[in-house]
Amino acid sequence: MVINIIFDLMNVIIKKDSNIKTLMNFTNDVNKAEGLQKYIYKTEEWKLLDLGNISHEQAIKEMQRKAPKEYSELIEEVMNNRCQYFTVNEETVKIAKDLKEKGYHIYVLSNMSEFTYTYFKEIHFFKICDGIMISAYEHLVKPDEKIFMTLLDRYQLSPEECLFIDDDDTGKSLETANKLGILGRRVKPNDSQDVLTLLKEYKIEI
Questions:
Q1: Pairing between strand 162-165 and 131-134?
Q2: Which has the least CB within 10 A, 42, 82, 83, 113?
Q3: Could you give the percent of the chain with pLDDT greater than 70?
Q4: CA-closest candidate to residue 173, choices 8, 5, 4, 2
């Protein structure tokens, strides 16, 4: 029986547009936005931020060093201000609150940099959580089996009592979770109705 609901954050609890759409808030030039995507999101530094193996400031400097000079100011602006274009998915947060009131335990397992988590950490959703695991603080990222095992061990969770809600389009995170006995399937990004559908699939009514 499921008693623990594990939420991913980005595109589940926190809504965001595609990277290109987010970058278009910083430039009207599509080509420049595509360049920013390459010099920010597709860098080794971006991966290291999720792993917590580089500071926010160091990542910016390295991205700037590797990119053409014309991108330098924009890289810093995007890195420091992109979070303001993300919003809390209040419908999914309400689902989490309703689950909590029904007696379910609420957990977070998310790949996220320390900078991004710090930006959002005061939102009400986190106050109802029984446990929060952010990759940057663990130096582990999904789909690594170790981060799932760390979550289960730290909070003394039985995998068969856990339902994982994640939008990972590669399927690898759910594959790892399912292999460990954790229940769940991929949900559509930013789609609270699909979250409700998933809950019903596991006979969870709120």
A1: unpaired
A2: 42
A3: 100
A4: 8
- Asked whether residue 93 falls in the same domain as residue 158, the answer is yes
pLDDT digits (tens, 9 = 90+) for 147-173: 999 999 999 999 999 999 999 999 999
Contact 185, 164 (CB under 8 A): no
Task: Report whether 13 contacts 7 (CB < 8 A).
Answer: yes
Write out the residue range of the structural domain in which residue 92 sits. Answer: 4-16+87-201
Q: Give the residue from 12, 188, 186 showing the smallest Cα distance to 93.
A: 12
In single-letter form, the type of residue at position 171 comes to G
- Neighbour count for residue 62 (Cβ, 10 Å): 16
In a domain? residue 55: yes
Convert the pLDDT of each residue in 24-75 to its tens digit: 999 999 999 999 999 999 999 999 999 999 999 999 999 999 999 999 999 9
DSSP state of 122: T
Indicate whether 11 and 50 sit together in one domain: no
Q: Are 99 and 206 in contact (CB under 8 A)?
A: yes
With left for phi above 0 and alpha for psi between -120 and 50, is residue 44 left, alpha or beta? alpha
**Residue appearing with tokens 């890195």:** 79
Query: Residue 109: its pLDDT value, please?
Result: 98
What counts of helices (H) and strands (E) characterise the chain? Answer: 11, 6
